[in-house]
Write a structure and sequence with these properties.
The chain has five helices and three strands; from the N terminus they run E-H-H-E-E-H-H-H. Strands 1-3-2 form a three-stranded antiparallel beta sheet. The termini are far apart. The chain has helices at residues 7-14, 18-26, 45-59, 64-76, 79-114; strands spanning 5-6, 34-35, 41-43. The chain has a single domain (5-114), classed as Orthogonal Bundle (Multidrug-efflux Transporter Regulator, Chain: A, Domain 2), CATH 1.10.1660.10. The chain is mostly helical and 122 residues long. Helix 1 packs across helix 2.
């Protein structure tokens, strides 16, 4: 039996907010598996996994626009494009890790030198 969840349940299972889930759906990154007669979106476990992935990616600093190509490639079952967009996303994450290491060094330097009082004549 395939389980289905309303958006609040799906969001909770994915560890994101309902607002985030709605944004991901509106951006076309997650397609609900069904819609009730009342117009409520339903999500299955595959959708929940996608919500979880996008939530983790955005917490890691990736933007929704960056995730779009990857999600669309997954939906199209285009393994070549999935691999290419994954490589691109991994390169962006590597760039961000490098930038974060640089900021960490600058913070450390600022803490070391910031405690010294400078005598500046104006």
């Amino acid at each position: 039996m395939i389980r289905s969840y309303r958006i609040g349940q799906a969001a909770a299972r994915a560890g994101i907010t309902i607002h985030q889930a709605r944004c991901y759906v509106a951006a076309g990154l997650v397609v609900p598996c069904a819609t009730t007669e009342g117009g409520y979106h339903l999500f299955n476990d595959t959708c929940v996994a996608r919500l979880r992935l996008i939530g983790a990616a955005t917490r890691a600093g990736l933007q929704l626009a960056e995730m779009r190509g990857f999600c669309h490639a997954l939906d199209a079952h285009d393994t070549e494009k999935v691999d290419a967009t994954r490589d691109l996303l991994e390169a962006r994450m590597s760039e961000r890790r490098t930038a974060l290491r640089r900021v960490r060094r600058l913070f450390t330097e600022a803490c070391r030198t910031g405690h010294k009082t400078a005598n500046v004549t104006i």
